[in-house]
Structure formats: structure tokens, C-alpha cells
Amino acid sequence: MAPPRGEVLQGTLDLIVLQTLHTMGPLHGYGIAQRVQQVSEDLLKLNQGTLYPALLRLEQRGWIATKWGASENNRKAKFYSLTRAGRKQLLAETRSWERMTALMTRLLSGTEGA
Amino acid sequence: MEWLRIFGARLRGLFRKRQLDGELDAELHAHLELLTEENIRRGMSPADARYAARREFGGVEQMKELHRDQRSIPFFGALLQDLRFASRMLAKKPGFTFVAVLTLALGIGATTAVFSVVDRALFRSLPYPNEDRLVSFGLLAPIERDEFILGSGYVDFRKEPGPFEAVTSTAPGTSDCDITEPNAIRLNCALVEQTFLPTLGVQPMVGRNFTPDEDRPNAPRVALLTYSLWKTRFAGDPGILGKTISLDGNATRIVGVLPSIFEMPTLAAADILIPLALDEDQQRRSEPGRVLRTFARLRPGINVPMAVAGLQPFFERAVLDAPPEFRKEIHLSIQALRDRQVRDARLASWLLLGSVFAVFLIACTNVANLLLARVTGRQRELAVRAALGASRGRLVRQALTESLLLSLLGGVLGCAMAQVLLRLFMSIAPQGIVRLHEARLDLRVIVFTLAVALISAVFSGLVPALYRPAPELLIGKDVRATTRNVLRQALVSAQIAISLMLLAGAGLLLRSLLNLQNVRTGMRTENVLTEAISLGGYRYPTPEQQIAFFSELQGRLKRLPGVTSLALSDSLPPSGQMRSTIFAAIEVPGRPLLKEGTGGMVGWRAVTPDYFSALSIPIIRGRGFRQEDRLPTENTIILNETLARELYADAEPIGQQLRLFRMQGPWRTVVGVAADVKNSGLTVNADPEFYLPWKNDPVESLSTAHIIVRTGTDPKAMAAWMRAEIVALDQTLPFTIETMSQRVGKLAQRPRFTAVLLSLFAGIGVLLAGIGIYGVVGFLVAQQTREIGIRISLGATSRNVLTMVLLNMVRWTVAGAAFGLLGSWLSSRFLESLLFEVRAHDPFLLASALFVLLAVAFFAAWIPARRAMRVDPMIALRYE
Question: What is the pLDDT of residues B209-230, one digit of tens each?
């Protein structure tokens, strides 16, 4: 009985943001929020504001870099992009995520079989 | 390393707060704009679109808060905030800040200065590794106040040192020696065994220690230089090792240089170490042998009592070796090296440290009181803060930040004050306490100051910080916080109690100092100059040369204008260090010899005939010495009153015969009895003493002399002339010229140091307590203005008002004074050994201290109380 719109798991938001920046290239906060919602097809309920502390956390860890630029409507906006360390982190986190899901899948299917 | 990176980022965030806030605002603004535009595109009205955007975004302010917390370090952020707030508050009330910082600086400064002095004596480790295992051990006898061992016993003991890991010995004191080439200087040579440095755990800085072979009689001469001698005399010559110097005319090879921190365990000034070269066989044969100072390193795990037990067999043998008269009067002693160095300065050190800490407490109490008064003035503000959600901890933290800031300011100012005080201490008494001259504000002391400042911050800030604002304050109700008033008055009582104890202690010490300075020394010291000369064995090797020098010098000095009398003596009262013999060794016809025991020590000195007139020592019976008494054929003696009484009781001493020094000398005729003179310090009663004439006889010649000049002219000018005469005779000769008053004054130096310091602290304490009382009474009066106004309008006279205000204070003062009296009564017992001719529980002194304190308290309370008397009821009732 999964809820229709999942809460963002602590920690997964970081991975989502990194992955988004990886596929889309440099983006501003609004763009990231839009992209996340688009991909999740609104399954993921995201208070867009919560994105910003996450972005700060990633920046402090040196995984993303920031740069001021102009947005589509020619406004001043802060663009976030993946750093090399960020790419490495993304790879590592993707792997551990895959391991985790594989484990969960196996576990859950095993339960069904019993 | 990641945490470091994050910490760095956060630290940067801490100091770029404003810029980052602006950037975040801009970013969020852009985000919301884009969201709104998107919503408009979807067909919403602009107002709806903006509203929807806000909803989608979530709480903007909460997010900002979250962002800020994460961006910086919340603890530091709050600290910076508190510091900013605290400094604003302090800057707004410069009067309060000034008084508080000054009070703290006084307390912290005095504490720091005293700590820097006593630290060397009490706490700081001596410059030897594992110094806690180093001891001085040996025998104590009436003739010697330091431990010693006789060579005959020691040469065998050192092979089996029992409880000790290592033992070593030195010759007592240092001896004069001269480097004679190229230009002569007088040095202090210390004669030490080759085990000396290893026992202390000291390594030469360069070169090596003496070898066992070099520490034998007739071995080639070698020496170790101290660092300062190497630097000053040899300009730090790196090639000094192996060089040969001429020491007392003997070629001596330098084998090493000692490290700069080296000091003799006796703290004696030494420039050069040379091997003791103990001749074992000779020591064994010539019982009792040489007097040696002995030091040892305890085996690990052995303490002093265990060592005493372990040394008992050795001691029993040593007693048998001692001359029979001494056997009952010697005992064994082992003491830690530090105790030997500090001696009786320990009590004075603790006393000063304790009393300065009391002053510090009073200062903190005052600041606590000041802060309490401020909290009372700010209670409404605090209530608002609490209502707006400031947690209790947050409020406490803010209050503590303020007192911390005050204390740090006080600490910085206190360091400067400590420097000034330290100078003052040294000028009061250069010999005030052991190692005083070494005291300075180094890192260790600064760290101590910092710790003291922290203590003061907590102590003075905690009481006000724990104040919890009453919620009623928010509706404008005036809440009278009685508990705090009680607390403030209790603090004042504590101040009074502590001040009273300080005052009583200072009174005792001052009284004792006064007694000490008025001690009748038995001579007149005004206009008397003394000059100590010691002739080196190199330039004056024969007795004839020494005699020639002294007669030449006497002749020259006698011709100086203004010399009324001139005398020579081998020692001078009252600083001890005179030659002595035992009472049992004086033979009087008809008096049976003492069966056992020494009968105590009898001091004696050789003097020229004018000695008694130069020092104005009255001859009570008979006559003084004459020139003919100096002839080798004459055998005369002068006794002092005490010795005359002990030898002859009431019989007439003049003309009696006696023999000295265990009957080896000639029979001597008593020709006079001189009045008693203080010989060994000011506090000890006159000892038995006799005088022999200073003879121009090579057999009895002396290389050391004190020249005593009584003058009718200015002693300073006379000192300059005397100096010139000696230099004219021999310019290489070291000598010291002092007035007799200076010499006597030196003896009271340490008591003076303690007394002056304690008085200073008592003065500061009383002053601070006065300020504290003034502050509290003034505050209470201000708080009660309305009540006083009502009372006056209802017909109270100004006298009633005064009584009301003062009565309240009197209660707390009396309580404090009672505790203070009790405290002084209990604590003055510890002072007893520092006192001279004054009882520790002197009721007059205690009453005077009480009177002074009560007068100060009354005066401090009276000023604000008078203000209460003049309250205008009209103004008071309209107040607020």
C-alpha cells in the first residue's frame, strides 16, 4: 500500500540532484526543481524550497560548483554544475543504490515466493 | 578531510553572512518569479499564480533559517551575535564597564603577579629530570642548619647507598677562586664529586663530565664551566674544550660547559665546577673528616620515610663517629630538594597566594553584584526575549558571554597590572622569597591568567545569568525580586568577612614587622659603613702578605677625613656566619666539665680594639681591647654578658682565667664584659659570645675581613672614598661596601615583603568591599525610592529614612564581620610561625581591623543613604 506521492528519502535528494545535473548540465535551482518533478511525473512530492539547503550541502562538500549567470527570461540566476568530485560521488552513490535495490528486489521477491 | 572542507566552508560562511544572505535572497526571488511566470502561462491570474508559487515552494523563511544554520556554525554564529550584543551593552554603559573591568584587572593582575612569584617556589619543577626523587640528606646538628655528612662515614656509604639510586656530595658552599690570566677575576668555584651531574640527571651542554680518575687527589686539574661564565668570560668560544685556563695559578683543562638552565641544588651562585677529589684513606684516618653536603636520588617507589628507615644503620654509625659531646644532639634528616631550597618561604608563599585569591574573590563578587544590578534593570527586556522563544540556555549563554568579555578585558589589563606589581614586589625586597628575581610573566603565567579570567567570568556571571525573568513583567508590573536582594547582600557579607580576615592578617604581620624593626640590636648602626674584603689565595698566598695588606689598608682609611673610628673583624653582627665553638669546650678552673652534650654553641669573633667604639657596643665591666692585647704574648678575652653569666653566674668575671677550644689553647684572662649583641638574626635572643683580639700574628692571620668605619660625614661620600682607597691598593680585589643600617635592614626583608604585600591586598580588599557596599546600598535606595517617598509624605522624618536604609545594611555587615572574626580567629594560627613578639590572637589588632572595616562599611553605606534622606516625595511618587 504505497502512498501515491512518496516523501523524499533523506539522502536520496542528493543523488537525485547530482543525477539531474549530470544529465542536464548546468542548471539553476528552479530548473532542477522542474526537472525533478517532470521526471518523477509528480510521483515525488518536493517542497521546492528544501532543494536549497541540499544544494548548499552539496556545494560545501565540493560536489557541485556555482556560478552566477542569466536565466531564460534574462534574469540573474545562480547556476549549479557538477564538479569532478561530484561525478565521482554520483558514480559511487549510483553503484551503492543499485546494490541496495538489487538486494531489496531479491529480498522482496523471496518473501513472495515463500 | 571532508569535515575540514565543510568546516572551512562554514567558517567562511560565518564571516560573509551579509553577502550570502543577499545572494540567497536574490536566488529565491528568481525562483519564485520563474514559478509565478510558469503558473501564469498555465492560465492563472497573477495574484493566484504568485500564491501558488509560494505554496509550491514551501516556507521561505524556514528555508532561509535552515540555509543559514547549515551555511555557518550555529554555535559560533550565536557566539558572534552574543559578543556583538555584549560589546554594544558594555559600550553603552562606559561607567559600569570601566568600574567592572578595573575591578577585575585589579583582582586578576594581583593574582597573576603573586602566582608568577610563588610558582617558582612552590610549583614549577626544578631543572632536573624526575626532580621529585632528588633529596638532600645527612645529619643535623646545632652547629649546622643544613644537612651534612662527615667524610669519614661518607666514603664507605657511597659504595652502598641503601635506599638511594645514586648519591653525591659537594663541599659546603662555594669557595673563592681566581682566573689569573690574562686578566684576573674572582669566581665562585664549586667542588663536586664526579657523581654530581649524573645524580642530578644533568648532561653537560658540550663536552663531558669528570671521569672517576679526574676526581682523585693529585689528578690533573679539570673544570666544567657554567653557561654564563662561558658566554661572558670566553665569549661563547666553540673551541673551548680542551683549552687550559689558569685557576688560582694552576693550569686547569676545561672538559665541558654546563647547560644554561643548570643551577646548584643549594642555589648557590657558582661559576665553575671542579672535582672534589676526596682522598678516601685520608678521610677514613682523620675522623671525623671533611664536612660534606650530600644529595641523592631515591630509588623509584621509595619515599622519604622509607629512606629514613633504610638509612638508620648508617646513621647509627655516623653518631658513633661524631665527637662524644655531639652524639645526643645530632639527628638524621632527609628532605626533598625543593623543600631544602624553599625552606620557610613555603608558608609565606601559600599565605600570599591565599590572600591574593581572597582579593580576587572579592573583585569577582563586586562584578557579580554590578551585573546583578544590571540584570535587574533589564528584566523587562529579558522577559520579552523569553516570551519570544529564547530558551533558558540561550539567555544564560548570552549573560555569560557578557561576563566573559568583561573578564577577558580585565585579564588583558590585569597582565599589564601584574607587570607593574611584579616590579613593585622586587623593589620592596629583592630577597623576599626564594627565586623572586626569576619571576616573570611567561607563557605558563599567561595561561594561568587566562584560566583565572575564565573562573572570574563564570563566578561573576553565573549568578546573574541564572536569573529567570518573571512573566508578570510583560504586563508592566513591577516585580520586586527579593531573593536577589538577599543574594546581593549575602555577597556583600562575604566580602566583608574576607576583607576582615585579610585586614587582621595584615595587621598581625605589620605589627610583627614593626617589632622586628625596633629590635634592639645592641649596637648603633647609624653612620657606620662596612666593607667586606676577601683576599684571594693566589695574589696573597702567605699570612705575611695578608697582614701587610690589611695594615696598609687600615692606615690609608684612617687618614680619610671624617673617620671617627675604624675596626677590623672577621665577622659582623647581626647576620650570623660567625665562628663558633661549643660551650663544653671552654674550661674554667673550678667548674666541672660537662659530662655529656655540647652545652650549646658559643659564637666568637676576632676584632681590633676599636671594634666596640665603632659599633657603639658598651663595655659593661672591665675594659675593651688595647693595642698591646694584639701582641703574640698577650692572651686576653672579652666575654659578652650572656656568656659571662653562664660561666661565672654572679661572681666577678674580670681577671678570671679560662681556656678555649677543648683545652688546646693558652690560658686567657678575662679583661672585659661587653653588652649583648644580636648575632644570628633579629628574632633570636642574644647567644653567648666572646671576643679575641685580632692579632698581627701570621699564625692567626685571616684572609677575610670586615672593615667597620664610623664616620661623622655623609656615609655615601665616605663609601666613595673607601672604594677609591681599595682600588688604589689592588684593583682586582672584589669587595662590598654597605652601611650597617642596610645590613640590618636586609634581615627584615622577607617579613617586610610578606607584610607589605598582605597589607596591599587587605587595602585592595577593603576598598573593593567598600565599593560593593556602596553599590548595593545605592541600588536598594534607587529601588525603594517610591516607598521612601510614601513614607516621607506620611510623615517619616529624614532620620527615620536614614535608619531604615542603614539598618538593613548593618544587619549584613554584622553578619559578615562575625564570620570574618571567626575566620581570622581560626586562620591566624597558621601565621604564628611568621610572627615575632606578637600573639596570633592579639585582641587589640583584631579589634582595630574590625573598627577599620566597620568604618569603611558605614561610610560606604552612608553616602547613598543620605541620598535617600533627600528624596522629594512629589518626584518619587510620580516616578515612572
Answer: 888 888 888 888 888 888 888 8
Residues of A in contact with B9 (CB under 8 A): 59-60
d(CA B172, CA B194): 16
ipTM, two decimals, is 0.81
Is the pLDDT at B697 greater than 90? The verdict is no
Which residue, B112, B15, B25, B109, is CA-closest to B61? B25
Question: Nearest chain B Cα to A80, which residue?
Answer: B27
Measured between alpha carbons, how far is B512 from B759 in angstroms, rounded to an integer?
13
Interchain CB distance below 8 Å, A60 and B24 = no
Q: pLDDT value at position B205?
A: 87
Largest Cα separation within chain A, whole Å, is 59
Phi, psi torsion values for B626, nearest 5 degrees: -115, 170
Residues B621 and B638: beta-carbon distance below 8 Å: no
Query: Are B6 and A60 an interchain contact pair (Cβ–Cβ within 8 Å)?
Result: yes
Beta bridge partners of B691: B605, B638
CA B777/CA B488 separation, integer angstroms: 10
- Cα–Cα nearest to A30, from A51, A9, A14: A51
Contact status of B65 with chain A (Cβ, < 8 Å): no
The predicted pLDDT at position A4 comes to: 40
Nearest residue on chain A to B57, alpha-carbon basis: A48
Residue B597 has pLDDT above 70, yes or no: no
Residues of B in contact with A52 (CB under 8 A): 24, 27-28, 63, 67
Query: Contact A28/B5, CB-based, under 8 Å?
Result: no
Burial tier of B514 (Cβ tally within 10 Å: 0-12, 13-18, 19+) = middle
Mean pLDDT of B632-659: 83
**Please, are residues B805 and B863 in contact by the beta-carbon 8 Å criterion?**
no
pLDDT in the model for residue B43: 86
Q: Which residues pair with B606 in a beta bridge?
A: B692
Residues in chain B closer than 8 A to A7 (CB atoms): none
Q: Which pLDDT belongs to residue B183?
A: 67
All residues of chain B having their beta carbon less than 8 Å from the beta carbon of residue A30 are 30-31, 34-35
Cα–Cα dist B828/B850, whole Å = 15
Residue A42's CB: how many other CB atoms inside 10 A?
11
Cα-Cα-Cα-Cα torsion B319, B324, B327, B332, nearest 10 degrees, comes to -40
pLDDT tens digits, one per residue of B862-877: 888 888 777 777 776 7
Q: Give this prediction's pTM.
A: 0.75
**Taking all residues of chain B, what is their mean pLDDT, rounded to a whole number?**
82
User: How far away is chain B from the Cα of A50, in angstroms, using its nearest Cα?
Assistant: 7
Q: Residues B727, B729, B735, CA angle at the centre, nearest 5°?
A: 50
- List, in sequence order, the alpha helices (H) in B588-712: 611-614, 641-648
Q: Within an 8 Å CB–CB cutoff, is residue B63 touching chain A?
A: yes
End-to-end CA distance of chain B: 60
Q: Which of B253, B244, B164, B266 is nearest to B211 (CA)?
A: B253
Report whether pLDDT(A2) > 50. no
Confidence of residue B412 (pLDDT cuts 50, 70, 90): very high
Q: How confident is the model over B359-374, as a mean pLDDT?
A: 86
The answer for residues whose C-beta is within 8 angstroms of residue B263's C-beta and 6 or more apart is B126, B127
Phi, then psi, of B671 in degrees rounded to 5: -110, -15
Convert B756-814 into a string of H (helix), E (strand) and C (coil). HHHHHHHHHHHHHHHHHHHHHHHHHHHHCHHHHHHHHHCCCCHHHHHHHHHHHHHHHHH
Given the C-alpha cell 523563511, which residue does it identify? B61
Task: Give B508's contacts (C-beta < 8 A, 6+ positions apart).
Answer: B828, B831, B835, B838, B840, B842, B845
Nearest to A29 among B2, B27, B66 (CB): B27
Identify the closest residue of chain A to B12 by CA–CA distance: A60
CB-CB neighbours of B628 under 10 Å: 11
The C-alpha of B453 sits at a distance from chain A's nearest C-alpha, in angstroms, of 37
